Predict the structure.
Amino acid sequence: MKVRKAVIPAAGLGTRVLPATKSMPKEMLPIVDKPAIQYIVEEAVQAGITDILVITNRGKGLIEDHFDRVPELEARLSGSEEKREILNDVVNIAHLANIYFVRQKETRGLGHAVSCARDFVGNEPFAVLYGDDVILGEDPVCAQLIRAYEEFGLGVAGVKEVSPEAIQKYSSLKVEPVRDRIFRCTDMIEKPTPDQILSLYSILGRCVLPPEIFDILDRTPPGAGGEIQLTDAMCTLARTTGMIAVDFEGTRYDMGNKLGIMQAQVEVALRHPQIGEAFRDYLKEVAAKL
Ligand code: UTP
């Protein structure tokens, strides 16, 4: 079955980026001139997704506003020839896809957030794009995962190798190679202790799941941090039907921590057609001084 729906969980508290995220959702933090979540929606759309559900909560109304039309602003921009290009950009944001919103009423973890998408998803496979993971590259990661889902008919996790120190903060997967960049996954664990590490492959920000995941999530008790972990539900899937892991191509920026945010800003700014050259000169100058 074709994957045409995506879920973007964006209801986390963003405690690692406080105080910036006290009233501003981390998903709305800008990377040069677009908020993080717009890059994520654009990736999904490039992968052929037509319907997107964003999981929000109290205080995340800014996300809804960003994907809406703004008649007053558009009227002002349309009055000026030089603002026409930006007018198109502003209007197009509202037409990227059919974007829906639902609130996760309590912050009970990523697994719980995904379970809020049950009615939206129905009986179809769907992609999950974590709202604080921006991944940039030629071939959208979401498309790389959807191709694997269509080939193998199994849930797919986007993975990367991380350092032995980092793996304890993420998940660890038991994998066997199928071919270049593709693995079969039969087990996984969230936030492993050193003796629980299955491999240094960790799920980073993207997966494609069958609708059976919702029944599994309903039966999944709270795990690491007292939260309902999506990894725990995917672990059940991996141990029963098996899953596929795709070592994706693309650069991932973790917008959930301060260093990740700055890396995204700097790298995207250096490649930006309008400011790239000037920003490179500025960086050299400032790095020589400080
Ligand atoms: P994180 O665990 O990285 O987000 O979840 P967080 O809880 O905001 O992080 P900190 O530790 O407090 O800084 C990954 C993704 O899942 C979403 C987050 O918004 C993020 O995009 N999420 C997490 C939810 O939607 N609901 C939750 O209950 C937890």
